Each structure stands twice: as C-alpha cells, then as structure tokens.
Amino acid sequence: MERVKANFKASLELALPGQEILLERPKGADMGDFAFPCFRAAKALGKNPAQIAQELAASLQIEGAEILATGPYLNLKLHPQVRARLLLEAVLGPVPFGSAPAHAETVLVEYSSPNIAKLFTIGHLRSTMIGHTLAQVNRYLGCQVQRLNHLGDWGTQFGTLLAAYKRWAEQQNPRLDQDFEWSEETAEKHRTPLFRLFQLYVRFHQEEESQPEMRDEARSWFKRLEGGDAEARRLWTWFRQVSLAEFQRIYDRLGVAFDAMDGEAFYEDKLNSAIEQMRNAGILEEGEGGAQIVRLEDMGIQTPSIMLKADGTSIYATRDLAAALYRQKTYGFDRCLYVVGSDQVLHFQQLFAVLAKLDPWFKGRLTHTPFGMIKLPEGKMSTRKGNVVFLEDVLDEAVTRVLAVIEEKNPELPHKEAVAEMLGMGAVVFFDAMNDRVKPITFTWDRVIALDGDTGPYVQYAHARILSVLRKAGATWVDKARPTATPDAAIVPYSCEAIPPSLLGLEDPAAQTLLFELAGLPDAIRSVQRENMATALARQLVAIAKAFSGFYTNCPILWAENSPEVRDSRLLLCVATARALRQGLFLMGIKAPEEMWWENWWQT
Ligand code: ARG
Residue 604: its pLDDT value, please? Predict the structure, then answer.
C-alpha cells in the first residue's frame, strides 16, 4: 500500500515539478484509495483545478490502479484484487500494521498525576487514558517513550490534611482503616484508608468556612512538614503510601503503567539549584509583596510567573520548573507531553515561557495537551466540596450493566465476570476517546456507559463476532487471529500469514469497503500522534467494525458459494479485521474478549 502511495506521489512530482504533493484519503472506497487535491498546483500554474485533474488522469499510469479525475481531485483507485492483496499483506505480514521502525526520538508522556490523599475521580480517567494512548501510539511509531507520573504529593493541601488528621482522626482511629463515625452511602463502598483521608479533607474545608482560624492550623502544619518535622514527615509518608497503594490498584485495573513516579516532593531538594539557575540567567525579579517572579510580558503573557512566595516557600510552578530541568538532564528528550486538564493552560504557558527564557533548548520541545473537564449536570466537580463521581464507581456500574446484558442474552458465556470487566472498561474508556479532547464533557451515567452505537463494546462485539466465525471454521483459523505471545509494549505480536495466490470473493463492494476502512488505520494512528488525541483512532475502529458488519451481512463466509477459495479469502479478511481491531483497542488500553453475546445469529 505504502509502495503504491509512494509511486503515485513520485509520478505526480515528475508531472508537476516544484509542487508539493500532499495526498489525502478519499471519503469512501468507490472514490479510490488516494486523492490528490489539485487546488494548489492549479493556482501555481494559473489553470483551473478540474482541468489539471483531467490532464493528469490522461497522462499518468500506475500499475494495478485506475487514475480518475473527480472534479478538482485526482484519485487513484486500486483494482479490487490488488487492493485486497496489498491490504492483507500489510495487516497479516511480519511488520505490525501501521507501526514504524524504532528510531532515536525520545518522547516523554506525563499523565495521570493525581493528588495524594484524594480519590480517583472520573476526571482523572481522561488524563490517565489519553496519556496511556499517546504513550502506546508513540511507541508503536518507533519513539523511545518514557511514561511519567508527576504525583501531586507536596503542597499546602498536606497542611490541611495533617491538621484534619490531628483534629479528628488520630484519637479515635489512629490507623484510619477501621470504622469511622462518618457515614455516607459511598463510605459503605469505599472502606479504604484513602477514603477516610479524603473525608477528613472535605470535612476540614467545610468547617473552615465558619472557623477561618483553622486555616492557620493548616498553614503551620505545612510549615512543619517543609521544615522536616519528624511527626509531619512520618504522617506524610504514610498518607502517601496509603494513596499509592490505592492508585496502583486502579492502574492495574486500567492496565496502565509508568516508568517513573517521581512526584512533586521528589523535586524538593532540586529547587534551590533551579532558583539559582534563574537568578544567574537574570530573569528572577522581586515582585509585589516580596515574591520572586519572572516577568513574561515580552513573551506575550501578561501575568508573571511566581517562583517563590514572599516567605521564600516554593509553589507548584517551582516544582514543575525543577522537574523540567531534571528531565532535560535525565532524558535529554525531544518532546515532552503534559496531559493535564484545560484549567491549567495558563500555568503551562507560563512554565514553557520561563523555561524558554532560561534555556532556548526547551523551545518547541514542550507541549501541553489540555483536555476538557468532566462536569456534572449540576456543575463543576469539586473534591473539596465532595460532589465528585469516583472512577471506580463508574467502572463498577459499567461492569454491572454489562453483566445484566450477558445474563439476559448469553447466560452460558464462560468467564462472564472477566468479559464484563473488559466491556465495562471498554465502554467508559472508549466513550472518553470518542469525545474531542478539548471540549468539556457532561457526565451522565447513560452517556458514559452506553453499550450500543459508536461505543467500545460495539467494536469489541465486532471482534468477538469474527472470532466466533473463525471458531466455526476451525482452530487454525482462530489461531491466526490470536497473538503469538503476551503483548508487550505497544505491539500485539502475531505470526505472519501466507496469502494464497488467488484471492477470490473479495471483489464484492462490501468486502472492498472493509478493506478500505482497514487501510485507514495507519493514518488514524499517525493522527493520534500528530493531534495528541485518541479520537481519530476510536472513530476508525468504529468505521472498521461497521464495515465488517456490512461485509458479514452481504458476503457469505463459511458457506461461500461452495468455493473453498472464496471461503478462505474471506476468512483471511476476517483474520485481518480481528487483528486490526485488537491492535487498535490495545493501543487505547482496551481489551478485546473473544466471546460476547449475540442474537443466536448462527442458528439462522
Ligand atoms: N497533580 C495535578 C492535579 O491533579 C496535576 C499535575 C500535572 N502535571 C504537572 N506537571 N503540573 O491537578
């Protein structure tokens, strides 16, 4: 496929010397496989685009393809046989479909980064799964990827927590893991130490509204923590452990992992040298009230970046600055992606500007990939106020809903719970990816856990259905669709398949449409890397699943016109589709079960 594309491009370059040749993907299989929009060339040559397309169509020839002018576009349309062969070779061949060979570019992806002593909410899912997908895709495309978790384990909120713990918890419940007088509906479910901590935090903020003197209490505890006070440190370490254990459980459930978990506290002993570096560069100034600031007006940012508060203490931004310098030293990266909510746009603009002033090396290497916040129908979620939706509740509810469907439609299904977990996860994670990364999402249970329509379970269903066809065809067919080893890194390894010399039975338009949609997967994967969002991949997987359903309806597979050749080519197309879907889902962190439910279709 890539060869044909390169050929087409080279011929166009010959025919249009000096013009930049950018090929697009046509809307559908009937329009062809590659399109060349003639607008720019027409402008340069002073002709009209349709005329150029006509002239090129008359003069160019590519083996195995037709060259057609469609209005202002020049389309290359492969012969059905050629298209089938090229695609099957690409998907079933030795090189993972749409991947790129390893190269030296180092990409850091920083994601998830939750705050210690707060629970994972549905909001954290976005950073976690978008980040996971970006890491997977960049790896698939050959980059050296480091997955970083910038844990929020430092800052004034720990003063709040220490104060709250000392006030209410220490006496009654020094370990925080037994029953506690708090009783809320959710408390019943989340009897974890972390949940207790979270409740303490919420309670402190509620009571401090009417007793502002409590704020001093929190402040003084943070001072003790910063000053290295033994008790404060001991409790902080413990809060951190309790939180990490809980986060790890969720990461395991989501199948997400990190190469480094250096949180904000990790940079505490690196702050002085960062400040020193800024001072030496002459960019640190005294601002209003005695704070140390960096002015950024010359970079188009009106708000200066505060680096040290008047009392000399560091803030969130100081630690981010030290983190970037540390990463420069440690990884010498080419790109660093910060997958963090859109409420921190200004923070990252300032951070990147300060870094660029400090060392031009940083210019162009740092990207904030903001995502829209998840809102509740009644408004913004707020951990402080306690009106949040916990990620685990959402996952549990999704699994429960899926189990109900399984009980109704396929109660005999083996490993029901495991399948329900995969589908429930698939629903929630895929829903997130289908949304434009930047737009805010309003959370409602039915939207987030939809099973029908353009959803994860729909794609998973297509995959399971293909596996069912392959099971009917015999064990060797199933094996062809199965990975040869446990998937590592970003790649699901399969052994390559020999493509028979005659590929009959794939000329049908429905089969051609499926081939066309499969061909779109590599572009979709590259677009995830380019746009730093998973939407294109999710959409392409839905398109493939839909095209499979059309193929399945229109082209008999197992009883194909009594022709073993037709049957085998169609089965190979099934194998290719299953592999592509599985790989695509895998890049998004979603598993593909081999069995699901369906309406007894095999008996009819
Ligand atoms: N812990 C922060 C939060 O939950 C996110 C950290 C983002 N990363 C960073 N380098 N500042 O809001």
Answer: 26
Query: Which structure tokens are listed for 536?
Result: 């294109």
Whether residue 341 contacts residue 373, with contact meaning beta carbons closer than 8 Å, is answered with yes
Q: Which residues line ligand 1 (CB under 6 A)?
A: 110, 113-115, 150, 152, 320, 338, 340
pLDDT in tens, 21-57: 999 999 888 889 999 999 999 999 899 999 999 999 9
Fold assignment, 453-602 = Isoleucyl-tRNA Synthetase; Domain 1 (1.10.730)
Ligand 1 centroid – CA 394 distance (Å): 22
Q: Whose CA is closest to atom 11 on ligand 1?
A: 320
Kindly give the number of the ligand 1 atom that is closest to the alpha carbon of 341: 12
Ligand 1 geometric centre to CA of 383 (Å): 15
The percent helix, strand, coil of the chain (3-state, each to 5) is 55, 10, 35
Predicted confidence at residue 385, as pLDDT, reads 62
What string of DSSP letters covers 313-374?
A: -B-HHHHHHHHHHHHHHHH--SEEEE---GGGHHHHHHHHHHHHHH-GGGTTTEEE---PPE
Predicted TM-score (pTM) of the model is: 0.92
Percent of the chain exceeding pLDDT 70 equals: 94
Higher-scoring residue by pLDDT: 487, 215: 215
pLDDT at 453: 87
Q: Which atom of ligand 1 is nearest to the CA of 348?
A: 11
Domain ranges of the chain: 2-78, 453-602
Architecture category of domain 2-78 in CATH: 2-Layer Sandwich (3.30)
Residue whose CA is at the smallest distance from ligand 1 atom 4:
114
386 pLDDT tier (thresholds 50, 70, 90)? low
CA atoms within 13 A of residue 296's CA, in its CB half-sphere: 24
